[in-house]
Design a protein that fits this description.
single chain; alpha/beta; 5-stranded parallel beta sheet; 4-stranded mixed beta sheet; 32 helices
Length: about 900
């Protein structure tokens, strides 16, 4: 069917696909090519070569250019018919000048004959060369034509000789005209390009190629028939497009498939109003309304529950007046209250109606409640920490149980467990608890259905804080769904405290590391005071030394002590590994403590990490941070010999140090490949990138990937906008709540701004969607730039601690940026408002807390004014007020 069926890159007959329509056309084209190749072209080429050899002219570049050469020869022939060849040896340019009066009228020639000797001499000289009678009026035109011909001849001559003619110019010209005519006839089928725009040798090769591919030629009539059928089916425009662009069969098939699918979509859009009337803005509005309604429904649900509980209380009190009176009497007492066990025996319905949810430890359940099922459901949280024996009493007191926990975190502590077994229990096997460390393990042994894995991870505000644990085959093996955070400062880093000889280090705690922890805590207090902090040490001794060092530092530094007392809800803690499960803080410092001995030799003693299940203990330690994790050690990952890491916990510690040293980017061989982009997503990426948006496609480490994360144009590592399309990841969500609310809500909590591209809008109006995306990106960039421009509160500079120096660090306030131009002695009226605002901004950039009056005084002093005039105070005060709006 024309171009798609016959590719000119494969056959020389491709351009004849739409011209050879019948078998007679194919025969005519083949005959023409055969005559040209075997007769016309060789004959004409021979004559032309002989002509060049006789005349000494340069060979033309193509068959078409031969016309100019033959025209020049014909011009020389016309001149030499009227004058002798000696004319070419004369100074023709001078003769043209001297014979100029001959071009005028009879009066001009008469005057020149009488008064201009040069005219008479030139006239006589030309007449002496003539072969035929020439009028005086024709002499000038003849000489002028001869001069032009000689100039053109010299430009094309290869030997510099005078113009001269071949023996049979007329025959050569006739052979050339025949060649052109036959090439034009063949060109009507295959196109003239490639036949007359090349030299005769290349033209000959093209003709031979045509003759060698007769098979294709004889297919063309059938192809034309098929093309007519395709056109009749409504694909004429598609076939023309394919042919015009010389597309191959695969590209043609893709285009036809696209056209077919597009036509089907158009038909469906016309028949189905919901499809045809789709509008992205309206759909986005519906999604937003759904999300708002879903949030309200959840909020209203709590009120409904409270209402239902209140109504239940009334009903129970009406049905159990004796119990109601008992509880009322207990409430009115000032002393001698009945025990909780007595109340649950005497008025259980009233008590449980008034307080339907009880929070108790397993030990308190045994001490305070009767051994009977008085609750509907018992819920165990952190069930991996509850021994089976402690859980049994609580299980006895409910009809159903919900056990929640993480088997990859710490088991119940065994510090105070008895090392002996009661003789009465010998030989008794408990199928529920045998081999189970916790009630979580015990339940997993007997429950075969009804268990649910909670996969979404919410704690970490940056995915890098949890990605390591998620990737480990011995832990979660990529089962968790985590979400990328908007990039800012590094969420995870490794601080190396170099080993020094004789630094007081023992096997369990590095003194230099203790001092470095104090410095890092001080740094955090001054630079990130709004973030809560926890310090985790691998061993108890190391934790005790850090605690004591921080206690001394707080005594010497009131600012540091103020930070410790400022976080009432989440106070700073220093804990060893075994005591930290269940805790979380905005920032966490993990101090290894263990390391090299006094001789600098690595000891490979990592306390509980080396024990069985040590990887679970490490997992607890490295997943406590919400925003920032700092890992401190006195050795590097490269200092560890893999052959000496005998436990999975120790091996995982080495991998984690390497991961922290890479700032959370290198997961090693367990790195998870990103899902490939489909055609729609690839088109979005390519078009938005071409529009100037710097994108990272499929940003994320596990479970959930942001389709496109748009970067700040001046800060490439900072993401300012999440661009989501309704591609595969969107449609893979099980529920509308998940895809249209929960994921976006959580990502916005992590600092993302959102822009949605609907595929239907993209296909229908791509340029408009590109413009919308660019506008959203520019707006996000402006907001990010504006947020960064604001000076951070209480910004301080600090210096790293010096090894051996136990004194706390003192913050040094500094102003940010360049000092604005201040002209001492200049009147306040000579300053522009913007200049005063810039000075105020710079003075305030040191982060010191000031009242407005104090800031005004500091600016007046900085500008060099000795007194506080009313106009000075007014202008500077207005600038201070403008910064607050």
């Amino acid at each position: 069917m024309g171009g798609p069926a016959v590719d000119h890159r494969l056959t020389p007959w491709s351009r004849a696909a739409d011209r050879v329509r019948t078998p007679s056309d194919a025969t005519a084209a083949l005959t023409s090519a055969r005559v040209l190749a075997n007769d016309t072209l060789p004959s004409a080429a021979t004559r032309l070569e002989q002509t060049l050899a006789t005349s000494g002219l340069r060979r033309p570049a193509s068959v078409a250019a031969w016309a100019d050469t033959l025209a020049l020869l014909q011009q020389v022939a016309d001149i030499t018919e009227r004058v002798e060849p000696i004319i070419w040896s004369l100074d023709l340019q001078e003769l043209v000048t001297n014979l100029a009066p001959a071009a005028g009228g009879i009066m001009s020639r008469s005057i020149a004959t009488v008064f201009k000797p040069r005219y008479r001499a030139a006239n006589k000289q030309v007449r002496s060369c003539r072969r035929v009678p020439l009028k005086s009026a024709d002499l000038h035109a003849l000489v002028q034509a001869a001069s032009a011909a000689r100039v053109l001849w010299q430009l094309n001559s290869v030997d510099g000789g005078p113009p001269r003619l071949p023996g049979d110019l007329t025959g050569t010209a006739g052979a050339y005209q025949r060649l052109l005519a036959e090439l034009a006839a063949l060109g009507a089928f295959v196109g003239a390009s490639g036949l007359i725009d090349t030299d005769p040798t290349e033209t000959g090769r093209s003709l031979l190629a045509l003759l060698d591919d007769q098979t294709t030629l004889f297919k063309l009539p059938r192809l034309h028939e098929l093309a007519s059928t395709v056109d009749a089916a409504g694909f004429a425009a598609v076939r023309a497009l394919v042919t015009a662009h010389d597309l191959d069969a695969n590209a043609a098939r893709d285009i036809i498939e696209h056209v077919w699918c597009a036509s089907v979509l158009e038909q469906i859009s016309l028949a189905d109003v919901e499809v045809g009337a789709f509008d992205g803005a309206t759909h986005t509005k519906h999604v937003r309304e759904y999300a708002d309604a879903d949030r309200k429904q959840i909020a209203v649900g709590a009120a409904k529950v409270r209402r239902a509980v209140a109504e239940h209380v009334i009903d129970v009190r009406d049905l159990n007046k004796q119990g109601d009176a008992l509880i009322g009497a207990e409430v009115r007492k000032n002393s001698r209250h009945r025990t909780l066990r007595e109340l649950t025996q005497m008025a259980p319905d009233i008590l449980l109606a008034l307080k339907p949810c009880w929070a108790m430890s397993p030990l308190a359940v045994s001490q305070l409640l009767d051994a009977k099922p008085i609750f509907d459901v018992v819920v165990f949280d952190e069930a991996s920490q509850v021994p089976p024996a402690d859980a049994i009493p609580a299980l006895m007191r409910a009809k159903q149980a919900i056990v929640a926990g993480d088997a990859k975190q710490l088991p119940p502590t065994t510090f105070f467990a008895s090392a002996t077994i009661d003789d009465d229990t010998d030989g008794i096997e408990n199928n529920l608890t045998t081999g189970a460390e916790s009630i979580l393990d015990a339940m997993a042994n007997v429950i075969t259905a009804g268990s649910t894995t909670l996969k979404w991870h919410y704690r970490s505000r940056d995915e890098r804080l949890i990605a390591f644990s998620n990737a480990q085959p011995s832990l979660y093996d990529w089962q968790m769904v985590t979400f990328p955070g908007a990039a800012g400062e590094d969420a995870i880093r490794h601080v190396h405290v170099p080993w020094r000889p004789n630094n007081g280090t023992d096997d369990e705690s590095s003194s230099d590391e203790v001092r470095r922890i104090v410095g890092l805590v001080t740094e955090h207090a001054y630079t990130r005071p709004e973030l809560s902090l926890g310090v985790i040490a691998m061993g108890i001794k190391h934790a005790d030394r850090i605690n004591e060092a921080l206690r001394r530092a707080r005594v010497d530094n009131p600012d540091l002590d103020d930070y410790f007392t400022s976080h009432d809800r989440e106070p700073v803690f220093v804990k060893n590994l075994e005591r930290v499960q269940g805790d979380e803080r905005d920032a966490v410092i993990l101090s290894i403590g263990y390391g090299k001995n006094a001789d600098g030799r690595m000891l490979y003693r990592f306390g509980p990490i080396n024990a069985a299940g040590g990887e679970r203990r490490l997992n607890v330690a490295i997943t406590r941070a919400r925003s920032k994790m700092t890992v401190v050690s006195s050795f590097l990952p490269s200092d560890l010999d893999p052959n000496k890491l005998t436990s999975e916990g120790a091996r995982m510690l080495g991998r984690y140090l390497a991961y922290a040293a890479s700032n959370g980017t290198d997961l090693g061989p367990v790195q998870r490949p990103h899902p490939p982009l489909n055609a729609f997503e690839a088109d979005v990426r390519d078009r938005l990138t071409a529009a100037g948006i710097s994108l990272v496609a499929q940003l994320g480490a596990s479970g959930y990937f942001i389709d496109f994360a748009a970067c700040h144009p001046e800060r490439p590592g900072e993401f300012v906008l999440a661009i989501e399309a309704d591609g595969a990841s969107y449609h893979s969500s099980a529920t509308a709540r998940e895809r249209d609310r929960l994921r976006q809500d959580h990502l916005e909590r992590l600092g993302w701004r959102f822009h949605r591209i609907w595929s239907t809008d993209w296909f229908r109006n791509r340029e408009s969607e590109i413009a919308r995306a660019v506008a959203a990106w520019e707006s996000a960039c402006a907001l990010a730039t504006q947020a960064q421009a604001k000076p951070p509160p209480a910004a301080m500079t600090w210096s790293p601690p010096v090894a051996g120096d136990s004194k706390p660090l003192v913050p040094v306030p500094t102003r940010q940026g360049m000092r604005p131009a201040i002209h001492f002695g200049q009147s306040i009226e000579d300053y522009a408002d913007g200049e005063i605002t810039a000075i105020v901004t710079w003075v305030a950039s040191d982060g010191l807390l000031r009242t407005k009056a104090e800031l005004l005084d500091d600016v007046i002093t900085e500008m060099g004014y000795k007194r506080r005039g009313s106009r000075i105070a007014e202008r500077i005060g207005n600038a201070i007020a403008s910064l607050e709006t």
